[in-house]
């Protein structure tokens, strides 16, 4: 508190309206047991759903080999990092050069596409930001608030031009 006050951070309770949580999942017929994201030609991550914990465990490439994945572990406790929700939000993403990007988050008051994963299921919808001092808000395809599972959430910010594909691994 003292550090924040010394650096000019307002010590007031933030406005956190707009996010919805519910431990009961929405109905869905699209399973999502494994989610893979390629961030660049050389960087890949995965989330694998564990039905025993009801969480997505995080995996990362090993030795820059996109096919050889290993668990991402917390360096403090040695446990594999796991999340209740994985969100992929799409937005305007301007590449000025390979290491400099401009990503439009706060400018999204009308809504942009999103894909939500929870409880081993996939949902499509959209997201928006109403004000800088409020959290992002998530909606299902019908425009109703999408309830996240209580717990931790990993958000992937992706360009509107990013390709998505779904594969069935039976």
> Ranges with pLDDT <50 over ≥5 residues?
none
Task: Let me know the number of strands.
Answer: 14
Q: What structural category do the secondary elements indicate?
A: mainly beta
Indicate the overall shape. Answer: globular
Number of helices: 1
Largest beta sheet, briefly?
5 strands, antiparallel
Give the termini separation. Answer: 52 Å
How helical, in percent, are the residues?
under 10%
- N-to-C SSE string, H for helix and E for strand: HEEEEEEEEEEEEEE
CA-based gyration radius: 18 Å
- Strand proportion: over 45%
Mean of all residue-level pLDDT scores: 86
Could you walk me through the main structural features you see in this protein, from its secondary elements to its overall organization?
It is a single chain. This protein has one helix spanning 2-6; strands at 20-21, 34-40, 43-50, 55-62, 65-71, 82-83, 85-91, 93-97, 100-103, 112-118, 121-128, 137-140, 147-148, 153-159. The mean pLDDT is 86. The chain has one helix and 14 strands. Strand 2 (34-40) and strand 3 (43-50) form a beta hairpin. The chain is mainly beta and 170 residues long. The longest helix has 5 residues, at 2-6. The strands form four sheets. Strands 2, 3, 4, 5 and 6 form a five-stranded antiparallel beta sheet that branches. Strands 12-11-10-7-14 form a five-stranded mixed beta sheet, with no helix packed on it.
